[in-house]
Fold:
Amino acid sequence: MTANTNGRIPPWQEGSGRALMAACSVAALGAFAGGIGATLGASLDRFWLEVWRTAGFFVFSGLFALLAWRPRLSAGVWELAFADKLALVVVALASGSPEAKGAAWVDAALALALAASYLATRGWRSWRATEGR
Structure:
């Protein structure tokens, strides 16, 4: 990152962080769309699980969109989303489930994207109550 004495974020850095979160939002929206088909085709014993997972894709699409739109006005959203993705990776890798281990790669990529965007947009500044208002 470029040294900056006035505390401003270079436009390319801000744009990169926001674009990364926007891409994550679109990807999660795509997973939501795919999840609809999986839900409709699910057996009765997996139906609720598929509904829950598909709803999660929709929620994360919205969270990523909020982070792209207002990276420094979303206190706690960055940290909660990162904690969720990191926890899913840890549990998936510790489990014996092939499905979970396959999903771990996606969640690991999302955790890395969140971390990179958080750093690029200085998302930790969202905890400052007066900035941007």
User: Anything to note?
Assistant: The chain has a mean pLDDT of 90.
